[in-house]
Amino acid sequence: MIGPRGVSRYSFLPSLICLLIVVAQGRDAVAAQTVFSVKGEVLDALVCRPTGPGPFPALVYNHGSIVDALGLSGAAARGNRLDAICERLAEDGFLSFVPIREKVPKGRGYRSYQDFYKDIVSAAIDHIRTLPDVDTSRIAVMGHSMGGLLTLLMGIERKELKALVVSAPAQGPRKGAIFDFVVQNANQLSAPLLLLVEASDSSHIIRGVNQLDEALGKLKKPAKVLRYDGGGGHELFFKVDYYWRDVRAFLREHLGPLDDEEKQTSR
Predict the structure, then answer these.
(1) Whether domain 28-258 has CATH 3.40.50.1820
(2) pLDDT of 20 strictly over 90
(3) Are strands 32-38 and 56-62 parallel, antiparallel or unpaired?
(4) Is 241's pLDDT higher than 60?
């Protein structure tokens, strides 16, 4: 059954170490750097764990091309806060894993799709399945822009996924051809999908979302499409912002866990 479609509106050295400790103690989850293997190659990643013993539902988050181009710190300087997204996911109850696709930043303006990016995401899914505090029956994938496109591709290839969250999936020359492949194979998307876009994004992004929405509707796929008009454009999803309550609700619906208040409400 097709999910609801609608619009959401919301519009130093010792000194530095001490500061970091204070900041960390004030957070429920802190992004940690880790590594994982992709066909014998070691890549960097961020990992954030919820408090408690687990096992936890888990999520692989796929970043946009800005991180391929500028690296993690360069993208953060432009407002793309992967650490904050990773941490918020963990605070909401999900072990989150963020693979960094390029070992060396490709340079400003780089926005290319590479076939091996899919291998990286798939290896990240395989990696989190080996972690002792992960519930392997509750795994999702989420991504923005290029990461959104990769998330859709994983939704076609990996049938064990329990949910997909995609914001403003990438379009453009070659990316457009890959996106067309997704639309043509939308019948292979079996996991519930949350598809997000903001009204002031580029016209080709809006067009792509509408195209996929139409295909999913005809196929009666379990999809929820939200079109925001609270501002932010493509960069809205660079950080945790007003859209997050919809992400949180969707992931809790399809992965759990419920907190005590929600458990009382659901009885």
Answers:
(1) yes
(2) no
(3) unpaired
(4) yes
pTM of the model: 0.86
22-51 pLDDT, tens digit each = 333 335 679 999 999 999 999 999 999 999
* Positive or negative torsion for Cα 56, 60, 61, 67: positive
Closest CA to 62 of 168, 142, 4: 142
| Domain boundary assignment for the chain | 28-258
Residue whose tokens read 């989420």: 142
Other CB atoms within 10 A of residue 254 CB: 20
The answer to whether the beta carbons of residues 169 and 237 sit under 8 Å apart is no
For 231, which DSSP code?
A: S
- Encoded tokens for 21: 């400790």
**If residue 148 lies in a helix (H) or strand (E), which one and from where to where?**
helix 146-157
Judged against a pLDDT cut of 90, whether residue 175 lies above it is answered with no
